[in-house]
Amino acid sequence: MKNRSIIPILLSFIFILSSCAEGPNKAGMGATGGAAGGALLGQAIGHNTEATLIGAVAGGLIGYIIGNEMDKYDRQQLNHSYERGVSGQTNAWRNPDNGNSYQVTPQPAYSNPKTQQPCRQAEIQSVIDGRQETVYTTACRDNDGHWQLQN
Fold first, then answer.
1. Do 150 and 137 contact (CB within 8 A), yes or no?
2. Report field, pTM of the whole predicted structure over 0.85
3. What is the tens place of the pLDDT at every residue in 10-45?
4. Are 78 and 145 within one domain?
């Protein structure tokens, strides 16, 4: 019975994030993708509704942070870090348009056991409007060769 009460909350959360994703809102799109990925990961790890909800919230927050602050230039740099970055070595850049700076330290690539896609974990440190943020995330290469953040 307890699990059934959490499902509407999860669905409401995802619906709210979906409505934020309409239009050119990068934060909403990032949050929606992060919530979906986090929910799947939470379910896979915890095998229960509570883990799914926690994964959705955590993934949504990470997606929001990254989607809100990164523009096309930053995403290209991030993709380059995942694609060509040397494991354990930091790649850094400063966005010439907004002054935000990023440091990405990718880890060795591995094959996702379920999808067989190449994946890499990375630490992303950013300085946005003078605030430093650190996010630990995983990206997997999609069929088009682009790295997609998983959580």
1. yes
2. no
3. 444 444 444 444 434 444 445 555 555 555 555 566
4. yes
